[in-house]
Amino acid sequence: MDKRHFLGAALAAGSLPALAGPPPKAPIGPALLTISGEIRRSNRGALDPVRDQMMFKQKLSFPRAFALDFAMVAALPARTIRPTLEYDGKPHALRGPLLADVLALAGAQPPDAAKVVLRAVDGYAAAIPMAQVRMWKMIVATHLDGQPMALGGLGPLWAVYDADRVPEMAARPVKERFGACPWALYHIEVQA
Ligand SMILES: Nc1nc2c(c(=O)[nH]1)N[C@H]1C(S)=C(S)[C@@H](COP(=O)(O)O)O[C@H]1N2
Ligand SMILES: [Mo]
Description:
By secondary structure, this protein is α+β, with helices and mostly antiparallel strands. The protein is about 20% helix and about 20% strand. The chain has helices at about 5-10, 55, 70-75, 100-105, 130-135, 165-170; strands at about 35, 65-70, 80, 95, 115-120, 125-130, 140, 145, 145-150, 160, 185-190.
């Protein structure tokens, strides 16, 4: 086996030191979040224009991706934030893993200058620099006030942050704080 083949095999098995741990598992439940782009681990192949209708219609394309079901997101260490939401002007508890940790599961540790495109099922998308993802400690929320969030509501996954605790955002009117926060998040593209 030459060096390149060895590296390929090691990557496929997830056995490089930086990617230590068991090889990536495919989701058991329906995939709720698909991560593509600059990732080093994958558990599914290329976008399939037949089976991946919505992603196809939204003009996504990838040679491979990392897909997560709800359990995979919920299994990551979670934190709780309490931002004031614009929909009722009241603070709410939002719980979920750090977005950066979700990306790390796909073997993505993008530099601060790289952008991630957070895409929602209604086509809303926000391109956010990783520096901001880290500074704002953005999470992928799985629960609102202790309950899972409906598809058709704000869920099942919502990329969100604690706007009240980020001074430059807390200074803005509440309606201008969440442009970077797609609810019904279902796809993340990690750009170079
Ligand atoms: N899925 C989804 N998330 C979204 C939006 C949207 O249209 N769809 N709008 C964004 C914007 S621009 C803001 S200011 C807040 C609130 O948007 P809304 O007032 O349209 O709900 O949610 C953000 N997240
Ligand atoms: Mo907005």
